[in-house]
Amino acid sequence: MILHSSSLARHNQPEPDETAGDVQRSYLDALQLLERLHRLMLDLVKDEFERLGQQDLTPVQGMILFNLGGQQVSAGELRSRGMYQGSNVSYNLKKLVDMGYVHHERSSLDRRSVRVSLTLRGAEVRDRIDALFSRHAELLSMSGVLDDPPLQDVNRQWQRIERFWSDQIRYIY
Fold this sequence. Notes:
The protein has 173 residues and is mainly alpha-helical. It contains seven helices and three strands; from the N terminus they run αααβααββαα.
């Protein structure tokens, strides 16, 4: 019996349903991993706060300070920058202002809009979290964990997924 290369190609390729099922399983695995990584990141921040005696902040509030950085932004801009799982950004910003970590001021152009920025106290917390992430990046780099695939390629893939999700939300309305 003589098999043509096209026959061999068909026999070596997975069935369409198997491929779709594999892609869906991989996608769902990635979503679960992303959620677990986010929770673990918040746990790392919480542990760092406990180690430093920073009792007054939640990990989400710490990440808001970290993502705010040295810029002055609106609450909406801040919300789009970070993942504040199960939290109310406006509530947390109000708490951060009350505790002296964030300064807020009304926009001179649009009085309804509030711009927020870090106070010196907030910048100190941001720097502590930045130092934590820098230590982790250095340890991961030394261990080779980030080499295969390169983290830049992984990030590019997540950015494409982010764009896809954003487009899906946009097209609903």
